[in-house]
Amino acid sequence: MITLSKQEARRIAVRAQLLDAHRPDGIVETVAALSAVQIEPTAAIAPSAPLILWSRIGGPFAADDLRRAEEVQRDLFEWGGFYRAMSDLPLLRHEMATRPRYREPREWLAANESFRRDVLDALRDRGPLHAAEIADTAQVSWRSSGWTNSRNAGQMLEILAAMGQVAIADRDRKGRRFDLAERVYPADLPDVDAETAAFERADRRLGSLGIARAKGVAQPGEPVDVGEIGLEATVEGTQGRWRVDADTLAAVGSFAPRTALLSPFDRLVFDRDRLLELFDFEYILEMYKPAAKRRWGFFTLPILHGDRFVGKLDAKRDAKAGVLRVHAVHEDVPFDDAMQADVDAEISALGEWLGVEVAAG
Fold first, then answer.
1. What is the pLDDT averaged over residues 168-178?
2. In the chain, helix, strand, coil percent, each to 5?
3. What are phi and psi of 327, to 5 degrees?
4. Which burial class, exposed, middle or buried, applies to 53 when counting CB atoms under 10 A from its CB (0-12, 13-18, 19+)?
5. What is the 8-class DSSP label of residue 133?
6. What angle do CA 126, 127, 129 make, to 5 degrees?
7. What's the pLDDT tens digit per position in 44-87?
8. Pairing relation of β-strands 211-212 and 231-235?
C-alpha cells in the first residue's frame, strides 16, 4: 500500500495521458499509449479525435496523417466509437464475440438472418460501401424512438462491426464506408486467449490512465476501472483505494508542466467523478443543454496548466470567416501574468493549427 498526495496523483494521471511537456512523436505511438481515442464528429472547434491528438503532439500533427494511419497504413482501426492501435485488436476479439450484448438487438439479428447474409454478400461483391448503398431486405424492421428507427442497413452494419464481422474501411464526405473485416484487419495478428486478453486490456487501460479505481461507474464505450492490477494506493483527501501504474509512478519525478487545451471527450476529463476527486474540477459538456442554462458555453475546452485545471475556453471556429472566435475564458482560479501568457499562447497555437485567426467573439 502506498500513499499519494493529490498533487502526485494528478501528475501521474497527466503524465500517463501524455499531457506534460514530454510530448509524443507520432500518431500511432500516441493512440497506443492512450489505448482509445474517442471519435465524436461535433466540430464546434474540431472533431474530438484530431483535437485530442493535437493536444498531445502539437503543431506537427495533421488530421490527414490520422486518415493515412487508419485507411492506408492500417496501423489504427475504429471500434466501439474509438480509434485504437491495430496491435490491440487481438485483445478485443473475445469481447467482439459477446456482441450484441442486449436482448433486443440479439433478437433482431436472429430474425434477420437472411438480411445479414445479404449485407455481407453486398460488401463481398461491391464493398466498401456506405449504409445507404446497401439494399434494405430486412424481414423485421429495427424499432427505436431515436434516429435509427427503420434504418435497417445502418443498424445491421453497426451490429456486425461490433461483432468483428464487418469493419470501417474509410471515410469520405458521405461518412463511413464498411467492408468485410478480413479486408480491413491484418490476417497475421496473433491469437490471444480470453483470460490473457482481459488482463492485458486492463493493464493497458491502467497504463493510459495512470491512476484509476479497481471498480468504477460504467461508462459508455470504454471502461474506466481496471480491476486488481497495478499498485494499491490511497490518495490524501479522497475516500477508498486506488490502483496505480508502476511505470508511470516511477516516472512522475520527471514531470514537466505545460499548458494544454483539451477536448470535452478527452480521457483525462471523461470520468467526471475522478476529475472532481483528484483535480477538484467541475466540468460538464453543455452542448446538450438549452443555451439559457449553460454556465460556460456550448463546447468549452478544459484548460490544463501543469497538474491543475484552471479554467475553460468557450470558443467556436467560424470556418467561413477563417476565425476562431473566443467568446470567453472562464477562470476557475485567478490567472497570474505567467498563466495568462501560457493560456494565450496555447489559444494562439490552436488557431494556427486550425489555420484560422484568433479573435474575440
1. 96
2. 40, 20, 40
3. -80, -40
4. buried
5. G
6. 110
7. 999 999 999 999 999 999 999 999 999 999 999 999 999 999 99
8. unpaired
79-118, pLDDT tens digit by residue?
A: 999 999 999 999 999 999 999 999 999 999 999 999 999 9
* pTM for the model: 0.95
* Helix, strand, or coil (residue 337): helix
Which ranges constitute the DSSP H helices of the chain?
6-16, 27-34, 48-57, 63-71, 89-96, 103-111, 113-126, 152-163, 181-184, 194-209, 246-251, 267-270, 272-279, 337-354
What grid cell was written down for 243? Answer: 490502483
Rounded Cα distance between 18 and 86, Å, is 20
Report residue 215 CA to chain centroid gap.
20
Task: Give the confidence band of 217 by pLDDT, cuts at 50, 70, 90.
Answer: confident
Reported residue count of the chain is 361
Strand 323-331 relative to strand 357-360: parallel, antiparallel, unpaired? parallel
C-alpha torsion sign, points 22, 26, 28, 29: negative
Q: Which residues pair with 2 in a beta bridge?
A: 233
